[in-house]
Design a protein that fits this description.
40% helix; alpha/beta
């Protein structure tokens, strides 16, 4: 999106351009990602299937794709699973895939009563298909109110990108006590961890057990809502259309979509009135 909407200007800074366009500065990380039409179709199929069978591994997915008429092998399926960020869920934590050079933090939410805003935020990245490519969506959600405090799209999943989105959320909404994530490399990186811990009042770092979606269930529900209520209903042509569509959806999600768990109040209503 940076190329189409925001550019270098001799007099107007990028920050000011974003203000004039009413978009987050962290929301302009965009350039096309090349993939064949066939691979894009398979990736979209995998993305939809993940919401139904997140416990499928490479072998099951390869067989499933062949039944759908796709000519694939396990090597190709494994690569495309990696591109979309497929993390197979296991009945018990699988610790064999951890990056030993990065510290993994314990899960802090078990048994914790979440009863106020900015007590716990959850963060995650998900793959988003488009007609001519794909991007990644990163979101930060307040668990008590279900309010999405920030989000951004990017063509790459970098720790610097994630850190900038969180930093912007803190600047706009205040600092949370805990931030929960999974154990992927972006959230065990130095850039991410130092942003949370190297502060006057450090933010506590919480991480899901490997392969346990239930530990981050609220953001998993957010992804399901975003994809079934927005992404899969529209074939967005490019990053500009995707950004506009997501901007409208998150406004709807925060300001107009009542939640049963909130007694059918909206996240914005609960967040603004919460202590």
């Amino acid at each position: 999106m940076r190329r189409e909407m925001v550019c270098k200007h001799p007099k107007i800074s990028m920050t000011r351009q974003c203000e004039l366009l009413s978009i987050y500065r962290s929301g302009v990380y965009y350039k096309p990602v090349p993939e064949s039409d066939e691979n894009l179709e398979i990736m979209r199929m995998l993305d939809e299937q993940y919401l139904k069978t997140p416990f499928y591994g490479i072998r099951r997915l390869t067989r499933w794709l062949k039944k759908q008429g796709k000519i694939v092998n396990s090597k190709r399926v494994k690569r495309l699973m990696g591109v979309i960020g497929w993390q197979t869920l296991y009945r018990r934590p699988n610790t064999s895939w951890k990056n030993k050079s990065h510290k993994v933090y314990p899960y802090l939410l078990k048994g914790l009563k979440i009863e106020r805003k900015n007590q716990v935020w959850a963060v995650d990245i998900t793959y988003v298909p488009m007609r001519r490519g794909f991007m990644y969506l990163f979101a930060v959600i307040d668990l008590h109110t279900r309010y999405v405090v920030n989000w951004s799209i990017s063509n790459t999943m970098t720790s610097e990108w994630c850190a900038s989105v969180i930093e912007e959320a803190i600047a706009n909404h205040g600092q949370p006590e805990i931030i929960n994530s999974d154990q992927v490399s972006q959230f065990t990186s130095f850039e991410y961890i130092s942003l949370l811990t190297d502060r006057q009042n450090p933010i506590k770092v919480s991480m899901d057990g490997k392969g346990r979606a239930i530990d981050n269930i609220f953001i998993e529900r957010l992804w399901k809502s975003v994809k079934y209520e927005c992404i899969y209903l529209h074939a967005f042509e490019d990053g500009v259309q995707l950004y506009k569509g997501l901007d409208e959806y998150f406004t709807f999600y925060n300001c107009n979509r009542g939640h049963q768990s909130l007694e059918y109040k909206t996240p914005e209503e609960v967040y603004k009135n919460a202590a």
